Amino acid sequence: MAPMLDLDDIQGDVPVGLQKDFEGFIFFKILDRGAFKLALRCDVIGRITSARRARARELEILRRKRLGHAGRDPMPGLNLGFTKDGLTQLLGPQRPTLDPAFERGADDPKTTATLHDPDRSDWLKEFLGDRIDGVFLVTAHDRPLLTFHRNQLVGFLGSGISLIYSEIGNRRPGRERRNEHFGFRDGISQPGIRGVTPPLRPGVAPDEGLPGQDLLWPGEFVLGYAGQHSTDPHKPGPEPQMMAPWMRNGSFMVFRRLEQKVPEFRAFVRQQAARLGMDPELLMARMVGRWKSGAPLERAPLRDDPALGGDDRRNNDFGFGDDELQRRCPYAAHIRKVYPRDDLDEAEAQRHRIIRAGIPFGPEVAAGETVTRHSRGLMFVCYQTSIERQFEYIQRHANDPSFVGGKRRPDGGTVTPGHDPIIGQAPGNGARSMDEPYPNYPAGNRRTTLEIPSQFVVLTAAGYFFMPSITALRTVLT
């Protein structure tokens, strides 16, 4: 039986995602607690986009697509999260202690050391100075509408806050709309949520949304509901611990501003493909685990299949268990590292999932731009109920050359898979390596290694936030 979520009380970006072509990130410091709370009560909370509203908008977009309607409603969105410092400003120093990683913070030396993040001195200067208490997420279908709502919001808040940093992300233009800046289709492998994501084939696959999309218990992403069982992926487990009743229907958000060195990445791939004697597109696909179209290597190991990549009923319907010798997909490929599927026990693999809700930022690569001249990349956002068990677990294992362990070569030799070549980070921004960039498909045992001397995805700012329920915003927090 599917659980019943209070979608009117959960902020919309968490389980559904705010509809957006443009998204403003407004990081702020609370200057006047009374003025800030008054502005929230009178002018802001009523504009927060709930999960029910976000889902209704999603269904309306699908209906319009089926009818062939090109027109779009404005559908502006607004959500709000607070750092540990922000909650202290609102509740006082005796407030309850929340998730340990959240309380530690993304900028704590222990966090950056654990995740092998670059030294904070290399982050954006705005994230190094004044305290950040919270972030507003403002979304719209075009930049003028976003600017209008952003300015209106800042006007409501007035002298209650000071703006620490603001940036606008935007979907890429034209045919690149669904792609990140390296050119790969993004957002394919999202977990489904029981009670939110409907099964496409309820009589055949009641535990899946789309084929290959496992339905997880909502407590993995929203507090106050059953989470995953530790040994049975289909049974509900215990609810995540809440240190205060008002945490119900809330979620933890991880924000990371990831700058992508696109010209340098392209040049590196061309050079290494020539060295290895292979097609550059195939090398990129083996680094990611998918072709740019979204087609997975597990189903298209040597050639891209755009029809497969664009088919949401097929492009995520695969496992790694029958690819024990990494003939189709390298063990260290990005999608295999961050979601090992049946490389791990199924129940274990599903307890480390996240809901991603990021958006690209920055301009397109200019003609003749051989070295990055303009900052561009991904405003990475994800939601979970345990930052340490979910996001931090994923990043730590992307950084771990030995994960997933116990793998073999065709001749029986053991394998050290290497780093995730996309988001993996070595201590001190050191060099990384990945095993077997050249495919041994369908047979063979050629030994190759991809040496990666520098990062092509660079962390430039980060923050951990709590996204409270709308009830908590109306009551205990204001």
Task: Please give a structural write-up.
Helix content is 25%, strand content 16%. The chain is globular and about 70 Å long. The chain has helices at 33-44, 51-67, 84-91, 100-104, 109-115, 143-157, 262-276, 280-288, 306-309, 334-338, 346-350, 388-398, 470-474, and strands spanning 22-30, 77-82, 134-140, 161-170, 192-193, 215-216, 251-260, 355-356, 359-361, 377-384, 432-435, 449-452, 457-467. The chain has two domains: 22-257 and 464-474, no CATH class; 260-380 and 401-460, no CATH class. The model has no long low-confidence stretch (mean pLDDT 96).
What descriptive keywords fit this protein?
478 residues; alpha+beta; 2 domains; 5-stranded antiparallel β-sheet; 4-stranded antiparallel β-sheet; 13 helices
Quote the distance from N terminus to C terminus.
Answer: 36 Å
The H-and-E topology, N to C, reads as EHHEHHHEHEEEEHHHHHEEEHEEEH
% residues in beta strands: 15-25%
Radius of gyration: 22 Å
- Overall geometry comes to globular
**Regions with pLDDT < 50 over 5+ consecutive residues?**
none
Give the proportion of residues in helices.
10-25%
> Mean pLDDT, as a whole number?
96
Major sheet attributes? 5 strands, antiparallel
Can you describe this structure in just a few lines?
With 478 residues, this protein is an alpha+beta fold.
Helix-strand layout with pairing:
Elements: E1 22-30, H1 33-44, H2 51-67, E2 77-82, H3 84-91, H4 100-104, H5 109-115, E3 134-140, H6 143-157, E4 161-170, E5 192-193, E6 215-216, E7 251-260, H7 262-276, H8 280-288, H9 306-309, H10 334-338, H11 346-350, E8 355-356, E9 359-361, E10 377-384, H12 388-398, E11 432-435, E12 449-452, E13 457-467, H13 470-474
Parallel strand pairs: 5-6
Antiparallel strand pairs: 1-3, 1-4, 2-3, 7-10, 7-13, 8-10, 9-10, 11-12
Helix pairs in contact: 7-8
